[in-house]
Structure formats: C-alpha cells, structure tokens
Amino acid sequence: MAANGNITVQGYINHHLNDMTVGEGFWAINLGALGWSIILGSLFVISFALVGRKATTGVPGKFQCFVEMIVEFVSGSVRETFHSKDRLIAPVALTIFMWIFLMNLMKLVPVDWFPTIAGFFGLLFNSSALPEYAQNYSYLEQIMSHPWSYLKVAPTTDINIAMGLALGVFVLILGYSIRYKGVGGFAKELSLTPFNHWSLIPFNLVLELVQLISKPVSLGLRLFGNLYAGEVIFILIALVGLGQLPLHFAWAVFHIMVILLQAFIFMMLTIVYLSMAAEDH
Amino acid sequence: MDINATLIGQSIAMVVFVWFTMKFVWPPLNNAIEERQKRIADGLAASERAEKDLEKAHEQVAAELNKAKADAAEIIEQARKRATKLVDDETQRGQEEREKIIASGHAEIEAERNRAREELRKQVAILAIAGAEKIIQREVDAAKQSDIVDKLVAEL
C-alpha cells in the first residue's frame, strides 16, 4: 500500500516499524512481536510434539520425515561441536533453530497484510480506539490509523525478541560454565586467563568479562540487525506502489537465504558458545 | 523501538519452549530416529548374514551335487561290471551246458552205435549161424559146433 492521502511516507514507515504496546516505559510489552513469537513457538512445539507422539519407527510419513530431517540435522550439528553428553543442548538448539526460522519466515508475508487485517477488525470491534484526528480519513486510512493495525508480525525484527533469545543463551552459558567447571573453576577462568598471575587479575577480569558479555550481545544484534535491515527494505519496497510486486518478489527470494542462514547461525553459535563454556581451554 | 519488558517476556517464553521441547518434542523424535537406525542396521546385518548363508548353501548344494554325481558314476560302474560279469558267467555256463549236452549226445550216440553194432553183430552171428546151419544141417550138429560160432562172434 502506497502512502497517500493523509498518511505520509514517514508516517507509513513509522507505522510499520512500531508495534502495538501495552504498558509504559520499560515495562511496556510489544504485543505484536511477543504475541507472534509465542504463537510461532507454540506452532513449532505443538506440531513437533504431535509428530513425536505419533512417531513410528517403521516407515515414516512425509511430515514425520521432514521433522526428522530437521531433528537429525540439529542433532548432527550438536554432535559435531558439543562433545560432552548433555540432555539439554540438543533441544535448546532445535528450539532456537525452528523458532527463529519461523519468526524470520513471517517476513515473507507482505508487510501490509496483517496490519490491514488487524486494523479492519480493530475498526469493526473497537472503533472507539481510533484516534480523533483520523475521523475524516478514508476507510483504508482509518484502518491503518487504528491502534490495532500497529502490528509487527516478524518478531525477530524487534530488538527485544532478538536480545531476549540472546539473554536466554547467556544464562545457559553461565549455567554451563558453572555446571562443567564449578563456581571456582569459572571464577578462575575469568580472573586467571589469559595471564596467569595474581597481579593481572583485574586486567584479566575486564578482558574476560568483555569477552563473555560480547557473546550474547553480538548474537542478538546480529540477528536483529540482519532482519531489521531486511524489513526496512521491504517497507521501502512497499512504498513504491504497484511496482513493488517484482521488487518484493526479488527481495523476498533473496531473503529466503537470510532467513535460513540467520536461524542456522544463531543455533550454531549457541552450540559453540555452550561447548566453549563446557570445555576447559 | 526501545528495550523493554518484551525482552523479559521473550526470555521466559524461551525457557518455557525449551523446557517443552526437552520434555515432549526431542525424546520421542530422537528415540524414533535411533530406533529406526538400529532397525535398519539390524536389517542390513541380517540381509548380509542371509547372503552369506545363501552362499554357503550354494556351496553345499554344489558339493552335494558333485558327491551325488560321483556316487551315480560309481553305481553305474558297478552295475556295468556286474552286468559284464553276469553275461560272462552266463556265457560260460551256456558253454558248459552246451559242451555237456554235446558230450552226452556223443555218449548217447556212442551207446546207440554200440548197441546197434551189438545187435548187428548178433544178427550177423545169427545170420551166419543160420547160414551155416543151413549149409551144415545135413552133416553137422549145431550144438557141437557152437564154440566155434561163439569164437566167430567174438571176432566180429
């Protein structure tokens, strides 16, 4: 949908980059991103759990084959990198891979579809929420002005979602460090590497802490940056009007790679970080 | 687009999903895969074993066949020998029989001839005596000259 009438280009872009929120300040929650994130996560766990429950050891069906392919792929990646025996890491890797993949996949849905549908239902069921200034707008503009239409359907383009995942990984890194090395071993690694001398403990500490914290930060920012940039391009393409169709198609095809790659990279780095946390070095 | 509580919400969601995956998604799928891998491995091993068994059976069959052939050849050889021996024996027996029959025929013929000769001799003697009797009837007593006749008979 091109920006026309009362909605400016700037307003249109802002519209698509902002999410529906409840709450104020830090305690605000981005309903669109978090909601879709949970919907997609549930879609993943429920469909996979259903397949798992009906899983046959005989000849598998097509969907079971597909699911098993992913499971095998993740399990192979884990086995290659993470050498200790661990019950948690493979499910973590699978969850991260599938969840991020599905969240990224939502980017292929044209940017106006879900906001328009949500705005339509917003106008239908909660027309009083329409801002005062929009009373004289055209119907479509009213839809797009409705608060419900501020809906982000690709959760990973929200930095909170990406960093939330990275935070989870960070907690796992700490947990693995302590579990495999003990609190003492972990403290020793933080303070006595790379220079094993008591006088250099503060220096080591700064170095190691930076290294430790840079892991989740880079993990989250990489995912967010890639996806956000792609999303901005999608929005800009959507501004072109009817000419967007071939452009959108081309960018979407190119983006399939990013979608898959970023999910894979996030999973792989999680495994690598966790195996680094579990091994002495 | 600020950092806000969504981050915490997402982290909590992640914990829940990871827990769910660990509890209900990963184990059954992984078990199914591992079970199937084991079954496939077993199946492959079984088929390999069956192949080996088949090969062994083939060898056994070939050996049996060879042995049977050898047996058959031996039996045929024996039979031939026995047939030959039988024919030989029969031939010999026939020969003997023939010789015996010929010999008995000869003996019979000989006996017949002797008898005939004896008969003839007697006839001749009788004839001679009758002739002599006729000749000498008038002057010689037959009883008196019988020793001469007997001597004559013996000379015949």
Summarize the structure.
The complex is a heterodimer of chains A (281) and B (156). Chain A is mainly alpha-helical and 281 residues long.
Kindly describe this structure.
Chain A is mostly helical and 281 residues long. Chain A has one domain. In chain A, helix 2 packs across helix 4, helix 7 runs antiparallel to helix 8 and helix 7 packs parallel to helix 9. Chain A starts with 8 loop residues before the first helix and ends with a helix. Chain B is mainly alpha-helical and 156 residues long. In chain B, helix 1 runs antiparallel to helix 2. Chain B starts with 5 loop residues before the first helix and ends with a helix. The model of chain B has no long low-confidence stretch (mean pLDDT 89). Classes of the chains: A mainly alpha (281), B mainly alpha (156). At the A-B interface, strand 2, helix 2, helix 3, helix 4 and helix 7 of A face helix 1 of B.
Secondary structure elements and their pairing?
The complex is a heterodimer of chains A (281) and B (156).
Chain A: H1 9-17, E1 21-22, E2 29-30, H2 31-54, H3 62-81, H4 89-105, H5 113-125, H6 139-145, H7 159-192, H8 201-238, H9 244-278
Antiparallel strand pairs in A: 1-2
Chain B: H1 6-136, H2 146-155
Helix pairs in contact in B: 1-2
Subcellular location (chain A): Cell membrane; Membrane
Protein name (chain A): ATP synthase subunit a
Keywords (chain A): ATP synthesis, Cell membrane, CF(0), Hydrogen ion transport, Hydrolase, Ion transport, Membrane, Transmembrane, Transmembrane helix, Transport
